[in-house]
Amino acid sequence: MEEPVVIGKDKFRISEDETARRELRVLKVHDDVIQIQEEVHGIIALVGASSSVNIKREELKNLIKVAKEEFGWTDICE
Fold first, then answer.
1. What would the mean pLDDT of 61-67 be, rounded to a whole number?
2. Where does the source fall among the domains of life (predicted)?
3. Residue 63 sits in which domain range?
């Protein structure tokens, strides 16, 4: 399996004492399937059955660029 491509990184304050790190990555799973991975470090516990990814405007631009240049998806627009 290929290595994920990092399309965004940032830090945000959880409390006065704790800051979390976030990294957003994209991975090509199949010729027509990509996976967005959001990794957050610093939160004590996450509980739930659903999952979502927050994506910033610049990260979306980076995602489109990676999909075109790294994965050969030339038929998508910006």
1. 90
2. Archaea
3. 5-69
- The tally of domains found in the chain comes to 1
State residue 6's pLDDT score. 92
Task: Tell me if 16 is assigned to some domain.
Answer: yes
Distance CA 28, CA 30 (A): 6
Centroid of chain to Cα 40: 10
Question: 38 to each of 13, 74, 75, 76, how far by Cα in Å?
Answer: 17, 25, 25, 22
Q: Residue 25 above 70 pLDDT? A: yes
* Radius of gyration of the chain measured on its C-alpha atoms: 14
For the whole prediction, is pTM greater than 0.90? Answer: no
Q: Tokens for 5, please give them.
A: 């491509």
Provide the mean pLDDT of the chain: 81
